[in-house]
What we know:
By secondary structure, the protein is of the alpha/beta class. Helices cover 18% and strands 25% of the residues. It contains 5 helices and 15 strands. The protein has helices spanning 99-110, 148-160, 202-216, 223-226, 257-264, and strands at residues 3-10, 21-25, 33-36, 39-45, 54-59, 68-74, 83-89, 117-121, 134-135, 167-173, 175-176, 183-184, 191-195, 273-274, 283-287. The strands form 4 sheets. The chain has a 5-stranded mixed beta sheet with strand order 8-7-10-13-12, with helices on both faces. The chain has a 4-stranded antiparallel beta sheet with strand order 3-4-1-15, with no helix packed on it. A 4-stranded antiparallel beta sheet has the order 2-5-6-14, with no helix packed on it. α1 (99-110) crosses α3 (202-216). The longest helix is centred in the C-terminal third of the chain and has 15 residues, at 202-216. It is elongated, with a radius of gyration of 23 Å. The chain starts with a strand and ends in a 7-residue tail after the last strand. The relative contact order is 0.19.
Amino acid sequence: DGTDQVVAILKGGVSFPSNEIAFKDANDNVVPTTVDGEKRLLQLAGKTHEDIPQIYAVQTPSGTTDKHIAGQIGVISYNEKPLDISLVSVNGVTYPYNVNDLTAKLNTIYKQAVVPVSVSLHPDNLVVSDFDNIMDDIPSSSNRGYTYEMEDIIETFDRLNTVDPDRYYLFLVNASDDVGKLGTMPFGRNFGFIFNGNISSEDEYVKTIAHELGHGAFYLQHTFDEYDELEEGDTDNLMDYGADLEDASLTGKHLHKHQWDKIHDPGASVELFEDVDTDYITINFLVSLSSYVV
Length: 294
């Protein structure tokens, strides 16, 4: 029952012809629209989970009764998929910033996929006496994607606590042998590791947590592993190591529609956008980053 805003612009940046364009759904109902300079802001209401109704830009050229589709967009709705996270201190290593700010920033990232995030601090410091606080890279024989030291930390935590299978636990440790490694979380696992000493800023910390949860909670791949034509750093996607020069607050934190689908249904793959080329004008649609249909 949420709402979202979609921005419509004319291809080539030209002005909308006066009163020639109406935005309608498949049942010919007019979509509420406001004018913002050379843009049209469409206000859309959420539908059934994963329903994809089509919205059309219908052109009626001045002096005629002919109607032509100048553009269309399929707008998908999702039910909320909560993501509950616990940060666990290991041998006294704590989250160095404000947890409420972390929660807000993770929600800014994951609201793209209609995922509300909650973050809590585990009440107890986890003492692992034989861990030297520097994570090694020696893989264990368990085939779960962890090192022997990681397995030891997980087993210690499991022995001392009741693990919630619907919660994701991030162990905060001092550092990794690999100084370039900021965190790790295998696909589909409830436990991940964040290396405090390897992280240089709050923004990098937030992105590291969001990125690792993309792997562990949602099976999201690196963009450069998923697509052969991409290299590391080519995109501003959360699952890349690139940058977004247009919006510093979302640097490297975007998620695309196929990733929204994978978060909600790993088998889904549906195209969202479609431009319709005609002999008339063509409308491009842009989804607002401020809110998402739920």
